[in-house]
Amino acid sequence: MLISTKQQLIRNLDRIENYLSSDSDELYEAMVKYIARGRVFVAYKVGSHIHFAPSRFVGYKNNTLVKHQNNSAKHGFDTNKVISAILGRNKMNSELEEKYLSYCMLLNVTPSNSKRSYWCLEQDIQDEMTSEPFIEGKTILRTHIVRERNSNVVKEAKRLFKEKHGGKLYCEICGFDFSKSYGKIGEDFIEAHHKTELSKTNCEHEIKPSDFVMVCPNCHSMLHRGDVTIEKLKKAVKRKID
């Protein structure tokens, strides 16, 4: 179902910000790929920064990455039409194009060579979210600044892990191997957890493949849920198995 209101659009922008700030590299990388491939964008403010959301993602009501990936009928013509009805006609804009290219550099992705056009969401987002549909609690767009990640070091960490463990990727906490349980679809799937969380660093810093531990999504969630250490979680899992 396509969006029909500005509030629904903003809710999708907030969803994108959640993915970009996620500790899951799988979610982060999936979202930035859509941003890199897009041709028509909603430009919006996060604090003093301009971020960019692809129309094909934000044009569908209550969209998620899973819904988006499974939506075989999605089409930019449809989403462009409904967003234009809300924000006016999208246009090519050299200033926004420059900011978009800088944004892609921040996200560590290479944008496509396509010509791009933009809508600009200029209104105060928090004011927009105080209307009737959100009487149970208004949604406020996150004001964090996206921290640069180096996806190359994550790929290298996974490569080195496979090299060390006979070509296998498995959870270092519970031992779960996606390829064993799911076959071909599970091959090469694992999440990389920062031993020192990105959110707990306060400046640009060097990072190495050895700074990551391979974990399944369940263990990854547990590591963050209680701010538990890797070793403590390993011991907890071992006790349950024993």
Mean pLDDT score: 82
Report, as a whole number of angstroms, the end-to-end distance.
Answer: 48 Å
Largest sheet: 3 strands, mixed
Any idea what the shape is? elongated
Number of separate strands: 5
What's the layout of helices and strands?
Blueprint: H1 6-20, H2 25-37, E1 40-46, E2 49-54, H3 55-58, H4 65-70, H5 76-87, H6 94-107, E3 117-121, H7 125-128, H8 151-164, H9 178-182, E4 191-194, E5 212-215, H10 217-225, H11 230-241
How would you summarize what this structure contains?
The protein has 242 residues and is mainly α. It contains 11 helices and 5 strands, in the order H-H-E-E-H-H-H-H-E-H-H-H-E-E-H-H.
Could you characterize what this model shows?
This protein is mostly helical. It is built from eleven helices and five strands. The protein has helices spanning 6-20, 25-37, 55-58, 65-70, 76-87, 94-107, 125-128, 151-164, 178-182, 217-225, 230-241, and strands spanning 40-46, 49-54, 117-121, 191-194, 212-215. Strand 1 and strand 2 (49-54) form a beta hairpin. The longest helix has 15 residues, at 6-20. It is elongated and about 60 Å long. The model is unreliable at 124-147 (pLDDT under 50).
